[in-house]
Amino acid sequence: METSLYFKTLLILSIQLGIIFVGCFYFLKKAKESYIQGVPFLGLEFIGKKNSRGELDLIPINPDPINEDEKNDSSLVTSDTSNTEKEEEPTKQQALMAKIFLVWMLSMFGMIIFARINTAMGLSLMTITSISFSPLLGVIMLEMDENDGLRAILLTCFITVAAAIVGMYSGIDFSFMRSFLFFGLCALILIGLVRLFFGMTTAMIRAKAIAGAILFSLYLVYDFNRLKQIGDLGVNDWSTALQIAISIYLDILNLLLEILDAMGNS
């Protein structure tokens, strides 16, 4: 029995998102277990505090032991110099996350490039992207309140379903949004560069994140609508399904990151 383009696309999408979310939940679970047992997790220790809702919020700390035996002036200078050098050197956890981030970036760009050339290679790189992103997402959620992070995931899922319904069943052709979305994305990238090099206030970061969340929500509507239009043309192959799935996949990840950014700077 031949499956439809919709089925192929949603199958790829659901598997990849499942890898990310299950991996992230497992990461948070192990962090909580480490906190309960009082042992480090990936070089980090945690202190637990109750948030405004009475939920446990794990706060990662990177303890820097202090040498209390050195009390004379010369030893203080030596100790300060040593501590400065330690602060400048990346911790094991930072080095590990940097490697994972590098793998994620390379596999993501490789996924975008090779998906058009070879379906199997594109799908493999997409899987590597998902696997490597899950611990990064876990770290992002721990750096804020992971309870809010879980709510952000639920909100992202809700917006995705709503966008799919609007894009595929409203009967509206959303192709007119293409130029608007492109220039909106360019503006968002430009603002991100300004933030990176010049910094932004918390209010500006939150406003940018909200605008980004709106933009990627519209991208979801557009891409789901594109899926319907291509499916209606009779196109039904795994290569096309993978390319559309990647577009929607990136929309969802960017939407989630913008929502997390907005929550983290509220």
From TrEMBL:
InterPro entries, sorted: Bax_inhibitor_1-related
Entry GO terms, CC: membrane
Positions of the UniProt region annotated as Disordered: 63-91
Membrane-protein topology: Multi-pass membrane protein
Chief localisation class: membrane
Keywords associated with the record: Membrane, Transmembrane, Transmembrane helix
Keyword Transmembrane helix: yes
Sequence intervals crossing the membrane: 6-28, 96-115, 121-140, 152-172, 178-198, 205-222, 242-260
Subcellular location field: Membrane
Pfam families reported in the protein's UniProt record: Bax1-I
Family: Belongs to the BI1 family.
Name of the protein in its database record: Bax inhibitor-1/YccA family protein
UniProt source species: SAR92 clade bacterium
